[in-house]
Amino acid sequence: MAHIRKRGNRFAVSWREPGGRQRTRTCPDAATARALAREVEQALALGRSWEPRGPGPQPTALRTIAEAWLTEESQRLAPATLRRYAEALDLWLAWVRVAKLPEDVSSLSRATLSDLRTWLATAPGRHGRLRRPTTADRLVQPVELCWTWAAESERWPDVPSPRRLRRLRSTPAPVRAPSWEQAAAMYSELQRAAGQYAERTPAGVAPGWVLRLVALAWYTGGRRDELLRARWERWDGVAGLLELPAEDTKGGYGGRVVPVCEELAHLLWEWQHHDQEAGRGDGWIVASPSAERDGRGHADRLVRRAWRRAGVPQELWHGRPLHALRRRVRTHLVTVGTHGDVIDALLGHAAHGSGGRHYTARDELLPAMRRAVQSIPTIVRAAVTGGAGGEV
Q1: CA-CA distance, 274 to 354, in Å (whole number)?
Q2: Which residue has the higher pLDDT, 3 or 51?
Q3: Which domains does the chain have, with CATH numbers?
């Protein structure tokens, strides 16, 4: 049996081992002494000597989990997406240090993720401006994915299970789309730039190729990278079908075959004839003059400048100037009553979070898709009739 007696400001626990040896341990407070006495009595009841517990396994460090997850995802994700995920995880680890939380799995909880989201939305970003709530949600998403992956892995049994993570996400604000009239004004600014500057060498400014890119986005609602990777051999002028390749930055999905309206078919015929006369044999529909083949940043800069010069409010195109046309197309299709499955098939949405479920057999929807693209106003008609903006 263990005995407790007070020694000044401390408490001594004494007991006799099964072999007859007397032992004493000093504890800093009464609660610790009582807990030790219970452990000793349990050991004596089993006929064993009491031994102090070791330090035990240390909790897994958050950085260890983050680095392991990024290493595994590097086999699947595009480099740009991997860099974005790494930056988000670095922000998470920096916030853990700012909040003075343990840098191990004991800091994983729904409450800490909610606090992280609040910190991201209230702290200035890389450019000194406050982040939007949707940007904060986007930065928290890699943390949720990393946590879920670690919890499902057998490597770290001490990682808690992430339950009801989606409840943490704030309701996104409606995303407004520019009107057709505003989009036509932006296109006019690009045409004016093409008239002011002749197409130069690949290192120079060549607004002509951006006109092709914007026209494709106008009539198809395609993503920027899909359109930049479109090739002439994927255009079927007889059937009026254009194959848009899958995006590297979208995890390999998004590829689809879409019908085109009569106006875009006519433009494609003119562009192809022009390329043949000019002796261009690279096969790209949009010939980007950027140092890289896709010219993503170059296209964004030119289109962003056109939106600004057209006087279109910045909130309608800020951040993703070409994606604003994609929102315009979706808003138009919803307004004219196009079925949601047809919209998803045209725009390449793969999940209900962005539009609907992915269709593998889209031939059944082809007639409805053709009717939908024919409802898109031409660039000239949009400039004349105008149209109201909307929300998607």
Answers
A1: 37
A2: 3
A3: 3-45 (no CATH), 62-168 (1.10.150.130), 176-391 (1.10.443.10)
Asked if the model's pLDDT at residue 141 lies above 70, the reply is yes
Question: Under a CB-based contact definition with an 8 Å cutoff, are residues 359 and 341 in contact?
Answer: yes
Q: Which of 370, 65, 378, 328 is nearest to 222 (CA)?
A: 328
Instruction: Write down the residue that tokens 């019908």 correspond to.
Output: 259
Helix, strand, coil percentages (3-state) for the chain, rounded to 5, are 50, 10, 40
Query: Strand pairing partners for 26?
Result: 12
Nearest to 329 by CA among 172, 213, 180, 175: 180
- Which two structure tokens, joined as six digits, stand for 302? 């030119």
CB burial string 89-109: b at 16+ within 10 A, e below: bebbeebbeeeebeebbebbe
pLDDT averaged over the chain?
Answer: 79
Output the CA–CA distances (angstroms, integers) from residue 263 to 159, 238, 299, 368, in the order listed.
56, 14, 23, 18
pLDDT digits (tens, 9 = 90+) for 236-293: 999 999 998 876 544 455 578 899 999 999 999 998 888 888 887 778 888 765 544 4
Q: Tell me, what's the pLDDT at 195?
A: 65
| Top mean-pLDDT range of 275-279, 321-325, 339-343 | 321-325
Q: Using CA atoms, how far apart are residues 236 and 213, in angstroms rounded to an integer?
A: 18
E-only strand ranges, 245-347:
256-259
DSSP assignment of 82-131 equals HHHHHHHHHHHHHHHHHTT--SBGGG-SHHHHHHHHHHHHHSB-TTSSBP
Residue/partner pairs of 132-140 with CB below 8 Å, 24 or more apart? 133/170, 133/172, 133/173, 134/172, 134/173, 136/170, 137/169, 137/170, 137/172, 138/88, 139/88, 139/91, 140/88, 140/92, 140/113, 140/116, 140/168, 140/169
